[in-house]
Amino acid sequence: MIKVGIIGATGYVGCELLRLLLNHPKIEIGAISSVSFEGQEIDSIYKNFFNKTNLICENMNEVVKKCDVIFTALPHGLSEDIAKEVIDNKKICIDLGADFRLSDENEYKFWYGKEFSEPELHKKSVYGLPELNKEKIKTSHLIANPGCYPTSIELGLMPLLKNSLIDTNNIICDSKSGTTGAGRSLSLGTHFPEENESFAPYKIGDHRHTPEIEEILSFIANEKVNVTFTPHLLPINRGILSTIYCTPKDNIDLEYIHKLYNDFYKDAPFVHILPLGEIAAIKNIRLSNNCHISLHLNHRKNQIIIISTIDNMIKGAAGQAIQNMNLILGFNEDDGLKIISPAF
Amino acid sequence: MIKVGIIGATGYVGCELLRLLLNHPKIEIGAISSVSFEGQEIDSIYKNFFNKTNLICENMNEVVKKCDVIFTALPHGLSEDIAKEVIDNKKICIDLGADFRLSDENEYKFWYGKEFSEPELHKKSVYGLPELNKEKIKTSHLIANPGCYPTSIELGLMPLLKNSLIDTNNIICDSKSGTTGAGRSLSLGTHFPEENESFAPYKIGDHRHTPEIEEILSFIANEKVNVTFTPHLLPINRGILSTIYCTPKDNIDLEYIHKLYNDFYKDAPFVHILPLGEIAAIKNIRLSNNCHISLHLNHRKNQIIIISTIDNMIKGAAGQAIQNMNLILGFNEDDGLKIISPAF
Amino acid sequence: MIKVGIIGATGYVGCELLRLLLNHPKIEIGAISSVSFEGQEIDSIYKNFFNKTNLICENMNEVVKKCDVIFTALPHGLSEDIAKEVIDNKKICIDLGADFRLSDENEYKFWYGKEFSEPELHKKSVYGLPELNKEKIKTSHLIANPGCYPTSIELGLMPLLKNSLIDTNNIICDSKSGTTGAGRSLSLGTHFPEENESFAPYKIGDHRHTPEIEEILSFIANEKVNVTFTPHLLPINRGILSTIYCTPKDNIDLEYIHKLYNDFYKDAPFVHILPLGEIAAIKNIRLSNNCHISLHLNHRKNQIIIISTIDNMIKGAAGQAIQNMNLILGFNEDDGLKIISPAF
Amino acid sequence: MIKVGIIGATGYVGCELLRLLLNHPKIEIGAISSVSFEGQEIDSIYKNFFNKTNLICENMNEVVKKCDVIFTALPHGLSEDIAKEVIDNKKICIDLGADFRLSDENEYKFWYGKEFSEPELHKKSVYGLPELNKEKIKTSHLIANPGCYPTSIELGLMPLLKNSLIDTNNIICDSKSGTTGAGRSLSLGTHFPEENESFAPYKIGDHRHTPEIEEILSFIANEKVNVTFTPHLLPINRGILSTIYCTPKDNIDLEYIHKLYNDFYKDAPFVHILPLGEIAAIKNIRLSNNCHISLHLNHRKNQIIIISTIDNMIKGAAGQAIQNMNLILGFNEDDGLKIISPAF
Predict the structure, then answer these.
(1) Best label site of C120, C290, C328, D46, fewest CB within 10 Å?
(2) Which residues carry out catalysis (chains A, B, C, D) (predicted)?
(3) Choosing among A12, A47, A49, A278, which should be mutated to test the C contact, i.e. which has the most C CBs within 10 A?
(4) How many CA atoms, within 13 angstroms, populate the side-chain half-sphere of residue D156?
(5) What is the distance between the alpha carbons of residues D106 and A95, in angstroms, rounded to a whole number?
C-alpha cells in the first residue's frame, strides 16, 4: 500500500490532513513529523486522535525516507529544501505552504522577502487546483497546493474569465474566513474574548494571497487581472465565503451564466453551482471538500455578484491536497473525501 | 419631567429603547404599548427588566395620551396613522420604522408595495441622521429614524460625497450584520443551529434599505448615486460592519482624506475616525452609540476602502432615536448615551 | 445490498442518519419519508445534500415496503404502530424516539401521558446501548435507541454501578447539551440572539430522560438508583458533556477505578477512558461516534467526579443507531462510523 | 471630587473598572497604571476607549500619590505591599486580587504557596461582599473584593446557611464561566478555534476559589462547610452560572424558601430572586451588576437546586468593587451601576 507522510503534522493543516488520511481507503500513513513536538505521540497533542492512532512525531528525514508521498505543511520558506530532496528521491511532494504557488520570482520576493532557493524546482511544480490543472497534476511530482482564499475566488471566477466575459480591472473580492485560517499560533486577534462577538477585516490591501489570486486569474483570463481583495475574520471555526463583484463587458443574462458555470464544472466532483435564486452558505459545505457557488445580478447596474464558499481547512487546504494526491496516484478523485457537510 | 413613551415596546428595538431610556437622566417613561402583549408586565416578557421597572404594556392610545415624546417601533406601514395623531396633538414622534425614511413616494411604492397614506406628513418629517441634518432635527416634530445599514454606509461615505471626490456610479457596500437585526420573529435563518458557525449573504440586490441608502447618498452628493448593496448575516448578536469600496475621481492622498473625515466629524460626538493604519472592528463599538470609521487605500488601484461599524440596535436604531430626541428637546446630544463599549 | 430506510428524514436526527448512511460502505438507502415534506427532494430542504443524493421524501409506507432496515426518527407516540408493521413483515426496526425506551409502562404513562399501544412489542424490544446489551442487540429486530443524555450518563456510570461501588441514592448528573438536541422546531429558546452568549438549565427535575436514566442505571446496578438530573443548554451546535457526582461506598483509589473502566470498555470501540489527569472535552468527540470519559476525585471528600462527553447527534442518536444496525447485520461495529472528530 | 485610581488597568478587570468608572457620576479618575504598558495611552491598548479618555498608563506610585481610592487589579501576591502603602497614607484600597480574601494564613499558604507578608493588614481587611458585610465595609479602608465564582455561590447559598437549613457536608457547586474570567493572557484553552464549539471543566477539585468559598460559607453558617466545586469554561465572553445542589435537613417547602430568600435580600439592590417556576439565565444579567437566583426542588428526593448567575466581570469583579467604593464613600449603593442587561 502507498505510504504517505506529513511534515508539519502538528499545525492545524497537518492535523486536518492526518485526520482525513487516517480514513483514506487506499493509503497508509508511513510517518509524520513535527519540529516542536518531535518524539511525542500525536494523540497527546490533539486528543481527538486518542485511541485512533499510535503515530509519533518523528524527524522530517524519517518521513522522506519512509514515505512515497510527502505532504509539507509548513510556514513559507521551509518547503523548498525538503521538496528538492523528495523530488531527488523520485517521490511525490505536495506542498501546502506558499513556496511554490507563485511562478513570478519578483512577486515572491516582493511579498515574501525572499528569493527562490531552487529555481529549477519551481519550473517543475504545478499549481494544484484540479478544476484548472487536472491533467498537469496527474503527471506532476511537485504540487503547489493553492491558498484557501485563492481557491474560493478562483473557482468563483474561472468560467467568466476563461470566456472573457468581464472587465478584468474592476474585480472586488470581499472574503470572510473562519479563525482556523490563522492557525494554532496564539494571538490577541484569535483570543476568544476578543474575536467572539466581533468581526473585522485585516491586512486590507496587503494580504499575501493577493499575488497568488492575481497570477492565477491572469493565467486563466490570458490577460492581466487586478483585484481588490479584502479578507475579514469571522467568529467561527471553519469556512470561507467570498463575495465577488465584477462587471460584465456586455449585458449578460443570468441564466446564460448559470448554464456556463454548470457546463464548466460538469466533471468537477466538488464544485456545485446552486440553482438560481438560492444563496451559498458556509453551513452547507463546512467540514466537506465541496465548493458551493451561487450567482446573482444587481439588475439595476448589470453587475455580477458571485458567492463562493469552501471549508478553508479542507477544499482550502488538506482536502484539496488529498484530491491532488488522488489524481497523481490514479485513485478516484474523491477517495477519502466523500464526507457530506453536517448541516448543523 | 418630560414623559416619553414607546409604541411597540416588545420588539427588539422597543426593548432596547426602553433599556436605554430607563437610565436617561432627563426623561421619565410615561407609558409603553404592545399589541401582542397588552396588559402584561414588560419584565415577564424580557427578564432583564426584572425588578428594574413595573411598566405594563398598555394600549397605544394610552401612550399617545400620556406622553410628550412618542417613539414608534413598528413594522412598516403602521406608523403613519399614529404619527398623524401625535403631530395633531402637538407632540413629538420619532419613528424607528421605515414609513418616513423615503421621500420619493414612487420608490416607497416600489419597495414597500404601498402608497403614502399621509403625504402632507411626509413633507414635515426629517431624516434623523444627526450628522447630516442636525439643525433640521432640532426644530422638527416628526423624525424618520434611519435604518441600521444606511446609517453605517451614509456615515462612511458622507465626507467623500459632500466633496464630490468619488465616482457616484461605482460604489459597492458589502455589509455584515448581527442577528438582532432580524428581530425577535422566529425563522430557520436565525434558528441557533442553522445560523451558528455559518455565514451567508441574503436578499442580494433586493434589500429594502437600498433605496434609502441611494436617496440619502444622492441628497448628500447632490447628484444621483447608485450603490451595490449586499447584506450578510453574521453569527453574532450585535453590530454592523460595512466594507465600502469606491473610486476616487483623481488620485487621492489617504492623509488628506483622513484629515477631511476628522474635520467633517469634529462636532459629532459619536463618530470617530481611527488613526491611519488601524482597522475598525465591531468589538470596539458594540453596545455603544459610537461609529468607528477606518480609511484605507488599495494603492495598486487608487481605490478607497472604508470600514464603518456601528451597533445596529443602538447607533443603528434605539440610540440614534434617543440622540434625535436629545436634539429636539435641547438636551446634551449624548445624554443617556455615554455608554462605552465593553471591549470583550 | 441491504436496503435501509428512514421514517422522519427531515428532522435533525433523520438528516444526520441520512448523512452518515450515505457513506456507509455496506448498505444502500432504499427510501426516506417525511410527513411535512412528502414529495420533495431532500436536497431542497437541506442544502448540504445538494448533488449528493436525489432522494425524494416518500410516504412512510413506501419506506416499510422497500427497505430491510427501517429507522424511525419521530416524536414519541408515533413509532409503535410503524414498528408493529415492520416487525410483522419480518424486517428490522431501530427506533430513535422514546416509544420503546422505558419498559415500565407506569413510568411511561407518568412521563409521556400515554399507555403502550402494543405491549407485546415492548417485550421484544432491546435497549440499544451496545456497551450494555451487545449480545441481545445482535439477535433483536426491534431496538430502542437510547436518549442522548442517558447515553452520556449510563456510559459514565456503568462500571461503578456494575461493581456496586457507589451509593445509589446520591448521584447528581449535571448535563450540558448543544442546541441541536432541541431539533429543528423554532422556539425563542433557540432563537439565535437569545441563546447566543447565554446559558441556562431547563426542565429542572422534570426532563423526560430522567426515568430512562433511572431505569437503565437500576438495571445495571441491580438495585433501585435515583438520580438528580439537570440538563442545561449550551450555545454550541453539538455535544453533551455530563458532570456526574457520586459517592463511593468505601475509600477508593482513582487508579483502581481507572483500570476498572479501561477493562470494562476494552472491547467497546467507541468508549475511551482518558489517562488520569486529563479532562474530557466536547471538542475532541464532536462529530464522531466516540465517547470520552475522564475520572476525578475530590480528595478532600472522597467523592468521585466523572466527565462523560459524546456528540448528541451521533453517539447520542444517529451514530448509535447505525452501530446497532451494524451489530444486527453482522457488520463491523464501526462500519460507517470511523469519522475522527475535527479538533477545531 | 473624589479621585480614583486603578493599578493594573490593562488587564480585563482593570479595563472593565475603567469603563464603568468613566461613567460614574460622583468620582473622577486620578490616574491609572500598568507595568506592561507604562507610558502608553489606554486607548491605544483598548480601542473601545478611543476618543473617550486621554488617560495614560503611569507608574503605580503616581496612582497612590494622586488618588483617594485605589483599586488594585493584579495577580495574587502583588497587592499586599501596595495596600500597605495606601493604608499608611490613610487612603482607601480595594483589592480585586486574591491577597486578602482568605483570613486563614495556612489555607493561603496551601493554595497560593506563600505566606502573608503583612499579617497586621489582613486583620484590617474586610471581605467585600456587600450582601454579607455591608456595615463593616462602610467603615473599612481595605477591601478584599470577592472572587467571581465565590460571589455567585455565596449569594446563592447565604439564606439557607444563615438559617441552618441544609446539610453542610453535601454541597455541590457545578459552575460555568465565560472566557473573560481567564483574562487577557493567551493560552490554547482560550484560542478561538479550540474553545469555540467546545465545553469542558477545568481544575477539577483544584481551583483556588475553593478555600474562599468554604471559608466564607463556613463563616455564614457558623460551622465548617465543605463543598465540591467544579468550574467549567463556556464558549461565551461573560457570565457565570452556578448550579448548586444541597440537601435540606428536613423536608422543606419551596415557597417557604422562596419567601426566605426574598426577605433576606430585600435591601440588596442587585440580588433578585426570580418567581418560582422561572429559571435564571446568563442573558438576563450579562453586562450588569445584577445577580439572578432561581430556586428549585427535586421533589422525588427532597433536594434543593439553586441557580445563581452573575456577570463575572461586573458583579464578579469590577462592579462589586465599585459597589464597595460606593458604600465606603457614602454614595448610593448603585451609583454608576444602574446598567440594565441587554437581553440580546
Answers:
(1) C120
(2) 148
(3) A47
(4) 32
(5) 58
DSSP 3-state assignment of A20?
A: helix
Q: Print burial letters for B276-290: b (CB count within 10 Å at least 16), e (below 16).
A: eebbbbbbbbbbbbb
Cβ separation of D186 and A188 shorter than 8 Å? yes
Q: Which residues on chain B are in Cβ contact (under 8 Å) with D49?
A: 340
CA proximity to A309, closest of A323, A291, A296: A291
State ipTM: 0.97
Say if the Cβ atoms of B196 and C196 lie within 8 Å.
yes
Q: What is the mean pLDDT of residues B116-143?
A: 96
Contacts of D118 (CB under 8 A, 6+ apart): D80, D81, D83, D84
List Cα–Cα distances, D288 to A44, A100, A106, B96, D239, in angstroms: 40, 53, 56, 26, 10
Q: Per CB distance under 8 Å, which residues of C are interface residues toward B? A: 12, 178-180, 184, 186-188, 190-193, 195-197, 235-237
Question: Considering only alpha carbons, which residue of chain A is nearest residue C314?
Answer: A342
Q: Over the stretch A270-325, which tens digit does the pLDDT of each residue have?
A: 999 999 999 999 999 999 999 999 999 998 888 999 999 999 999 999 999 999 99
Q: What is the structure's pLDDT at A302?
A: 83
Three-state DSSP state, B195:
helix
Evaluate whether C162 touches C155 at the Cβ level (below 8 Å). no
Across the interface, whether the CB atoms of C237 and B12 are under 8 A apart is answered no
Q: Hey, what domains does chain C have and what are their CATH numbers?
A: 2-145+315-329 (3.40.50.720), 149-312 (3.30.360.10)
DSSP C159-224: HHHHTT-B-TT-EEEEEEE-GGGG-SS--GGGBHHHHTT--EE-STTT-THHHHHHHHHHHHHTS-
As a whole number of angstroms, the distance between CA C145 and CA B114 comes to: 54
What residues in B contact A237, CB-CB < 8 Å?
A: 197
Q: How far is CA A316 from CA A200, A285, A291, B120, in A?
A: 21, 12, 9, 57
Cα angle B153, B155, B160 (rounded to 5 degrees) comes to: 95
Amino acid at position D323, single letter:
Q
Q: Based on the number of CB atoms within 10 Å of its own CB, is A218 exposed (0-12), middle (13-18) or buried (19 or more)?
A: middle
Number of other CB atoms surrounding residue D330 within 10 Å: 8
Confidence check: pLDDT of B257 > 90: yes
CA atoms within 13 A on the CB side of C339: 31
Chain D residues in contact with C303 (beta carbon < 8 A): 228
**pLDDT (tens digit, 9 = 90+) per residue, B196-213?**
999 999 999 899 999 999
- Measured between beta carbons, the chain B residues lying within 8 angstroms of A296 are 204-205
Q: A184-225, pLDDT tens digit by residue? A: 999 999 999 999 999 999 999 899 999 999 999 999 999 999
Closest CA to A60 of A73, A47, A51, A50: A73
Chains within contact range of chain D (3+ C-beta pairs < 8 Å)? A, B, C
Contact C48 A278 (CB under 8 A): no
Averages of pLDDT over runs of 10 residues in chain C (344 residues) are 97 98 98 97 98 97 98 95 97 97 95 93 97 98 98 98 96 98 95 98 95 98 97 98 96 94 98 98 98 94 95 98 98 98 95
pLDDT over threshold 90, residue D252 = no
> What is this structure's pTM?
0.98
B192·C12 Cβ contact <8 A: no
CA distance D49 to chain A (A): 15
Query: In this model, does residue A251 exceed pLDDT 90?
Result: no
Which amino acid is residue A248, in one-letter code?
P
pLDDT at A337: 98
Contact A232 B243 (CB under 8 A): yes
For residue D302, what pLDDT is reported? Answer: 84
